[in-house]
Amino acid sequence: MTDAKKPQGDRLSEAEAIERAKQGEAESFEVLYHLHKRRVYSLCLRMTANTAEAEDLTQEAFLQLFRKIATFRGESAFSTWLHRMAVNVVLMHLRKKGLPVVPLEDTIESEEEAPRKELGAPDAQLAGSVDRLQLERAIANLPPGYRSVFVLHDVEGYEHNEIAAMVGCSIGNSKSQLHKARMKLRELLKTSRAEKAGRP
């Protein structure tokens, strides 16, 4: 039965799906979900650094869409409106639970587990993995406002005017938050490297 409905749903444009979804048509919500689920999930994942939370928050964002689609007036692009809603869902979640702390030690093998290597060239792949883990941990430790602007600008590629519209702040505030986020990231990464260097 789902396969029979899918071709009809696939023919709907985003604008048609939005209008039909406002009338409560379930297939239209499915079309909108399939059009936007990857980007919403990616945004949630980058903001939380946790796959289970990202999946839950993606579902929550689409539940919000279901509840609030009638309020969409088309003043901005639908994707911008949906992403602003997703950002708000994530920020509310982070405010309620506080920032997650992922211990870096969980990702490092003990001396007995580590494979023996010849003295000489460093393992670039391993170094890159550790750097990525340190960066992800540092991003996860940014205050929610800094993290959301950093992710939207430096990871997702949005411009400051788009971020300002999505987050509900001024363009100057978006630029300031991004600058502070980058400074805080540098500080967190420098601390992380210093801690690593200090280990026996």
In short:
With 200 residues, the protein is an all-alpha fold.
Note down, in words, how this protein is organized:
With 200 residues, the chain is mainly α. The chain folds into two domains: 87 residues, Rna Polymerase Sigma Factor, Chain: A (Orthogonal Bundle), CATH 1.10.1740.10; 79 residues, Winged helix-like DNA-binding domain superfamily/Winged helix DNA-binding domain (Arc Repressor Mutant, subunit A, Orthogonal Bundle). The protein is built from nine helices and no strands. Helix 4 crosses helix 5. The N terminus is likely disordered.
Please supply descriptive tags for the structure shown above.
0% strand; elongated; Rna Polymerase Sigma Factor, Chain: A; 72% helix; mainly alpha; 200 residues; 9 helices; Arc Repressor Mutant, subunit A; single chain
CATH architecture of the largest domain: Orthogonal Bundle
Estimate the global geometry from the Cα principal axes: elongated
Helices and strands, in order, run as HHHHHHHHH
Q: Quote the CATH topology of the largest domain.
A: Rna Polymerase Sigma Factor, Chain: A
Please mark out the parts with pLDDT under 50 across 5 or more consecutive residues, or reply none.
1-10, 99-117
Class from secondary-structure proportions = mainly alpha
Number of strands: 0
Task: State mean pLDDT (0 to 100 scale).
Answer: 77
What is the straight-line distance between the termini? 63 Å
Please compute the radius of gyration using only Cα atoms: 21 Å
| The named CATH superfamily of the largest domain | RNA polymerase sigma factor, region 2, helix turn helix motif
The number of helical runs is 9
The portion of residues assigned to helices is over 70%
Oligomer state equals single chain
CATH class of the largest domain: Mainly Alpha
Binned strand content: under 5%
Q: Quick one: biggest sheet?
A: none
- The number of domains is 2
